[in-house]
Amino acid sequence: MPARFHCPVPLVSGEKISLPPGTARHVQVLRLQPGDAIVLFHGGLTLDADGLPVPGADAPACAQGAFEATITRMGRSEVLVQIGACHAALPSSTPVPEVHLAAGMPANDRMDWLVEKATELGVSGIQPLMTARGVLRLKGERATRRQAHWQGVAVAASEQSGRLSVPPVWGVRDLQDALAPAAGSGGGDAAALLPLRLVLSLAAGAQPLHVRTAALEANRAVWLLSGPEGGLAPEEEAAALQQGWLPVTLGNRVLRSETAPLAALAYLMLRG
Length: 272
Hints:
- By secondary structure, the protein is an alpha/beta fold.
- 28% of the residues lie in helices and 23% in strands.
- The protein has helices spanning 21-29, 110-121, 140-161, 175-178, 190-193, 209-212, 234-242, 260-270, and strands at 3-6, 16-18, 37-41, 65-74, 79-88, 99-104, 125-130, 173-174, 196-200, 207-208, 222-226, 246-249.
- The strands form two sheets. Strands 8-7-6-11-9-12-10 form a seven-stranded parallel β-sheet, with helices on both faces. The protein has a five-stranded mixed β-sheet with strand order 1-3-4-5-2.
- Strand 6 (99-104), helix 2 and strand 7 (125-130) form a beta-alpha-beta unit.
C-alpha cells in the first residue's frame, strides 16, 4: 500500500507540483525514489509556516479526497510529483456527530498520546486547556512550540489511520476563557446548530453518557470537556455548569485523564 502524506496545498489531478517543505521532508526520510507511488490528501486543514492551524481558512475543493501521485524527481530539498486520480471519501452508512475535545492537559507524553488516539478515533478538533490541577503550564513561545508539536502528531495520526481530514489543535487557553458557548456546525433549525456541551464528571447527579446522548442528532456538534490528572476542581466544574455544560459520567470506574475523553469519543463515534 502506498505511503500516505498530508499535503496542505491545492491538489488537482493531472498537475505536477513541488511538495511543501514538511511533506517533502517526510518523503525524503522514507527514502522514496522517482517512480514510487504515494497518496496525498489535503485534509481540510491550512497550516502556516510554523505548522499551526490557520483559523477560518477555507478548505479547497480537493479537501474531501485522496489523490494518487507518483514521484518524478527527488532533489536535495525539493520533491516533485505528478498528481493522478482523486478518490473521494465513501459516504458513511451511519452519520456521526462532529465531536470536539477540550482537554485539561495531562503531563509528560500523555498529551501526545491523547492527541494521537483522539485523531485516530475521528475527533474534529482539540482545544488544550490549562486548569487548576494541571501540571503542565504553558505560555508564550513554549505554548506555541507545543501546539505545533501536537499539530504534527495529529497530522501523522491522520496519515497512519487513513483519515481524509486533519483535526486542528488550537492554541493553549485557560479553562475560564474556553467555557463560553462555541459556534457549532450542522444542518437543520437554529437549535440544531448549537453544540451539545458535555463535561465528564464524577459528581453525584451526572447522567450516563449514553442516556444524555440517546437522542443526539447526527448533524449536531458535540464538545467534550475533560480535566487533567485529578480532574477539574469543584469550582471549575461549577463554572462550567453555570455556562450550560451538562455533566455526564462514564460509569463507576475512575479513568485516567487521557483515557476518559477517549472512551467518550469512541462511544460517540461508534454509537450508531
